[in-house]
Structures are given as structure tokens and as C-alpha cells.
Amino acid sequence: MHATTIKVDPKLKSSLDNLKLHPRESYNDVIARLLNMAYDEEPLSDSTLERIEEALKDLKNGKYYTQEEIEAELGLT
């Protein structure tokens, strides 16, 4: 493996430090984990994207239920 030195802003380094699973975890491992989380090998289907668009429209139009309303409807309060 060939190592490369990069400049990182101190705030970003602090954020990377906070994301370590354990103090000795390397920055390489932290960055690799973040990249794995950011990349999805199975993109959303067209129908799922359409349902998300519909849900966003409903939210913008005030068509939603609060958690309290759902709990009351289900008799959980």
C-alpha cells in the first residue's frame, strides 16, 4: 500500500476523530467506512422515488399526522 499525505482542516480532523470507533482506528478506516455508507450499490427504484416525491408534496401541503395523533388513534396514549 502506498501512503499519501493530505492537508485536512483542523475542524475536519476533529470531526474524523469523533467518528472513530476506537481511539486507535486509522483515518483511512474512518474514511473508508464513511465512503461505504455514502455509496449504495442498489439505487432507489423509480417507483420508490415517485412515492418519496408524493410524500414530500403531502408534507408541504400539511397532509401528515403527528406522532401524538397516531398514538391517540391507536389507543397508545
Q: What would your notes on this structure say?
A:
By secondary structure, the protein is mainly alpha-helical. It has two domains: 1-39, Arc Repressor Mutant (Orthogonal Bundle), CATH 1.10.1220; 44-77, no CATH class. The chain has helices at 10-19, 27-38, 46-60, 67-73. The longest helix is centred in the last third of the chain and has 15 residues, at 46-60.
Rg, nearest Å = 21 Å
**Roughly how many Å apart are the termini?**
58 Å
Biggest beta sheet attributes: none
Name the overall outline: elongated
Level-1 CATH class name of the largest domain: Mainly Alpha
The CATH topology of the largest domain: Arc Repressor Mutant
List the helices and strands and how they pair.
Blueprint: H1 10-19, H2 27-38, H3 46-60, H4 67-73
Short key terms for the protein model shown above:
0% strand, 57% helix, mainly alpha, Arc Repressor Mutant, single chain, 77 residues
Please sum up the structure shown.
The protein has 77 residues and is mainly alpha-helical.
